[in-house]
């Protein structure tokens, strides 16, 4: 019998009927969500606070998670420099081994952090087996329990992840301004990563963050020099209001950049399609090839929906693609100032290979 480090058991139930027993950590509780995995070896503070993970139970494949603890929040002009949002966004966390921290700037352990924020964790399980099952059968719903016996878990799975608009939980309720010395851009915030905010802010932009449900007219009332449609959680095909907003903004012919959910919304606004992927891309080591010069870059990803080659709108050209599965990872318009990336050019956590995409957008704004 396994002796649990925190003194209580935990479970993960998958909708295919698989029940996995391990040890609980973090908060005691039961949560449901879509079970996804990341192959990132580091950056769990950024991953756990990424709003794009809202509604999901995250499995981290790296065997030891928690080694460097959790740092204190650092801000610059209201922008977090070491987290992607103010709180943990995942519904639950699954790891092989949860460890105690040993680093100079750690303020608390991973266990303490999850406990404070009411998020259940599960450890002492074979994450390789879970990932193999998800890769074989595809992403599925699941239930995580920490410190509770899991009886009749199916009752927690009344709704599918694809049926819920999670941006209602991650988008701000009113505009937020980050003043700066440069030109003004409006960022449509459906659950923005602060890494994206910081890259734009560091290039001199004054940033006006507006709620995800703002109309094109409300956005253009700020007389922006450019508009960014950022990342966010959930099924883009549910976001008809956002798609209409993109369509309206494009009529003004201002420079537009779409990232992740923004990339998908631009594709839909221009007549393209977005499809659910079998298990998505979630890692900090994904290759993307730039079709304009055939260079390959290593990039950070977090998406479960994709635009495939045959789904690209006729008015857009493929810019980047993933050589592993052919998913289009970026698009550009031949005549209008529109660029998009499915991957995360801000790379928090991850490599800085493609931060130059923000420089390209800055030139478009100029």
Characterization of this structure:
Pfam families: CPSase_sm_chain (PF00988), GATase (PF00117). Keywords: Amino-acid biosynthesis, Arginine biosynthesis, ATP-binding, Glutamine amidotransferase, Ligase, Nucleotide-binding, Pyrimidine biosynthesis. Belongs to the CarA family. Pathway: Amino-acid biosynthesis; L-arginine biosynthesis; carbamoyl phosphate from bicarbonate: step 1/1; Pyrimidine metabolism; UMP biosynthesis via de novo pathway; (S)-dihydroorotate from bicarbonate: step 1/3. This protein is α/β, with parallel strands linked by helices and 366 residues long. The protein has 2 domains: 9-162, Carbamoyl-phosphate synthase small subunit, N-terminal domain (Glucose Oxidase, domain 1, 3-Layer(bba) Sandwich), CATH 3.50.30; 167-364, Rossmann fold (3-Layer(aba) Sandwich), CATH 3.40.50. The protein is 19% helix and 34% strand. It has a 10-stranded mixed beta sheet, sandwiched between helices. Helix 7 crosses helix 8 (261-269).
Number of helices: 9
Strand order of the largest sheet: 14-16-15-17-18-23-22-21-19-20
Shape: globular
CATH architecture tag of the largest domain? 3-Layer(aba) Sandwich
**What gyration radius follows from the Cα positions, in whole Å?**
20 Å
CATH fold assignment of the largest domain: Rossmann fold
- The number of distinct β-strands equals 23
Strand content: 25-35%
Helical amount: 10-25%
Low-confidence stretches: none
Biggest sheet features:
10 strands, mixed
Class inferred from helices and paired strands: alpha/beta
Number of domains: 2
CA-CA gap between termini: 64 Å
Organism: Candidatus Aramenus sulfurataquae
Protein name: Carbamoyl phosphate synthase small chain
Enzyme class: ligase
Active site: 260 (nucleophile), 344, 346
């Amino acid at each position: 019998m396994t002796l649990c480090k925190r003194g209580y058991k935990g479970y993960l139930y998958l909708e295919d009927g698989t029940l996995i027993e391990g040890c609980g950590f973090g908060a005691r509780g039961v949560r449901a969500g879509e079970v996804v995995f990341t192959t990132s070896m580091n950056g769990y503070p950024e991953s756990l606070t990424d709003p794009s993970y809202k509604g999901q139970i995250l499995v981290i494949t790296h065997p030891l998670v928690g080694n460097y603890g959790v740092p204190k929040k650092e801000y610059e002009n209201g922008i977090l420099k070491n987290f992607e949002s103010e709180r943990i966004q995942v519904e639950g966390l699954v790891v092989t081994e949860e460890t105690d921290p040993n680093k100079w700037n750690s303020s608390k352990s991973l266990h303490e952090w999850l406990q404070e924020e009411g998020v259940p964790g599960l450890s002492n399980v074979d994450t390789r087996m879970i990932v193999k099952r998800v890769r074989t059968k595809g992403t599925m719903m699941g239930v995580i329990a920490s410190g509770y016996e899991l009886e009749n878990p199916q009752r927690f799975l009344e709704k599918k992840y694809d049926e819920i608009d999670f941006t209602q939980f991650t988008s701000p309720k009113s505009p937020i301004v980050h003043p700066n010395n440069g030109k003004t851009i409006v960022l449509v915030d459906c659950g923005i990563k602060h890494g994206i905010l910081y890259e734009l802010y560091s290039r001199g932009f004054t940033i006006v963050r507006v709620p995800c449900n703002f109309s094109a007219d409300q956005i253009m009332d700020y007389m922006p020099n450019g508009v960014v449609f950022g990342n966010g959680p959930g099924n883009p095909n549910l976001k008809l209001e956002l798609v209409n907003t993109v369509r309206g903004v494009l009529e003004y012919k201002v420079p537009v950049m779409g990232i992740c959910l923004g990339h998908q919304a631009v594709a839909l606004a221009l007549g393209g399609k977005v499809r659910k992927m079998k298990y998505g891309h979630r890692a900090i080591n994904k290759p993307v090839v730039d079709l304009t010069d055939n260079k390959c870059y290593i990039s950070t990803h977090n998406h479960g929906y994709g635009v495939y080659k045959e789904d690209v709108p006729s008015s857009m050209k493929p810019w980047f693609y993933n050589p592993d599965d052919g998913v289009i990872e970026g698009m550009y318009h031949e005549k209008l100032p529109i660029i998009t990336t499915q991957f995360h050019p801000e790379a928090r956590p991850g490599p800085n290979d493609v931060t130059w995409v923000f420089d390209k957008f800055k030139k478009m704004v100029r």
